[in-house]
Amino acid sequence: MARGFFNVPIAVNEPVKGYAPGSPEREELLATYKKMYASNIDIPMHINGKEVRTGNTKNVTPPHDHKHVVGKYHTADKIHIDEAIATALEARQAWSSVSWTERASIFLKAAELLAGPYRAKMNASTMIAQSKNVHQAEIDAACEMIDFFRFNVQYMTDIFKDQPESAPGIWNRVEYRPLEGFVYAITPFNFTSIAANLPAAAALMGNVVVWKPSDHQAYSAQVIVDLFKEAGLPDGVINVVYGDPVMITDTVLNSPDFSGLHFTGSTFVFKELWKKIGENIHTYKTYPRIVGETGGKDFIWAHNSAYPLQVATAITRGAFEFQGQKCSAASRAYIPASIWGEVRKHLENQVAELKMGSPEDPSNFINAVIHEGSFDKITKYIDAAKADNNAEVIIGGGYDKSKGYFIEPTVILAKDASYQTMTTELFGPVITIYVYEDAEWENSLKLVDESTEYALTGAIFSTDRYIVEQASKALENAAGNFYINDKPTGAVVGQQPFGGARASGTNDKAGSAQNLLRWTSVRLIKETFVTPQDYKYPFLG
Ligand code: NAD
To answer: What is the DSSP letter of 243?
Structure first.
């Protein structure tokens, strides 16, 4: 029981390490990578703090070397999901009422462990499982995850401080209770930090969780489980299950105690989940909170007052880092005809320098895409563009899945602003460019706004403040994270809370107080000190 109004440590962003040749962090990381690559790991599920091995396993294979098996993970039957729910509800009794300081300490400790002894392991497992280069692993699996833990603790106390006024003779107070029931966290493959944050944000606020990580992130998910355990997270608070997502989800969503969904992944899956929750609404004891951050078709728009080199650099970084597999990755660009020639020249020069291969060689900027399904989908669109009169592949377009799922950074030039790769989320290293006549710049903003169902991230480039203001207004609802003269990726916790609207999600901004609020149910307590004893009001005479 806390006896004092404690201040938590002021959250600061974890500095990004450089991993330059010869640096100690580079040597430690590459040595850890080698060791983990040869580890033959056996990844269990985690229910009530116990390791559960069903023998029903699937292999873990790095996307950049898919014939190499680094281990296996165990998958659930329905009975394991029922057990995970029951165990979470049991753990809730203690976890939901323990002092917030204990919960804060666990996640602050997790942040420090990750900044120190867990850093290389978390980064190496992310490089292996998700094919991220050293820098992409560092900004995600180390820095962003640390930031989520530190800032969320601070945001939790900010929320607690938000209290109502009290008139004379009474005391009003607000209690931020966890949801009554359990939260279901479903996480995507592409960010190890998101995988950790979705169950952790709910748990920090006193909730218990059933967490289903992506199959393609199991290796780094196991390191997250180890981290939480060492940080002191009690058994049963976060239960981890793998397997058939439909079976797991149907079992979870049929539970009367299901009280919240914390989802990040594709739009279609989220809409299906929302539908199932709606169909089951009479089953639940409480209206479930539904938080989902989903797909995007993120844009770069340039005005002819923009510097071509800056636009090209934003495209190279925004579209091709982590093979375009960031929900925020630029995948469509609108460039005015008068600067297109120069933008194209810079883009060709930059992309020609990007090396592709295994993340074990840190000089590779581009690594593999996540799995064969993704490779086949992306390359189908590239092939279609090669064969289509409405489009032209002007950079890249090559691919090879013999060893790993490698796709060259690819630029498609579309004659038609509604060409399929201008409007469909491919989630790969492909950007489509539409060149507009300079005089048509206002119409081109309409195209940006209206061509897709999404509204996640977007960037505009101009040196003219009137244009900046007008474009910002015209694109008011086109992006939840809007960038002026910068690439549309790389949101930092505590600085650019992240999320989009329309078909891109519920925009509850991961890594913010708004998100944490969703995992609470407020109880208002009014206490009257001198309680009335006469029912009559003065107006009754
Ligand atoms: P995905 O939708 O394929 O999978 C996400 C999770 O949902 C995984 O755990 C998966 O196993 C599970 N899942 C899949 N089908 C399911 C079903 N029928 N029922 C229940 N669960 C199911 O997405 P992904 O390929 O892992 O991630 C990429 C997608 O995530 C992209 O669309 C990307 O834009 C989006 N994303 C969005 C954000 C954001 O903040 N908006 C962040 C990261 C990723």
So the answer is: S
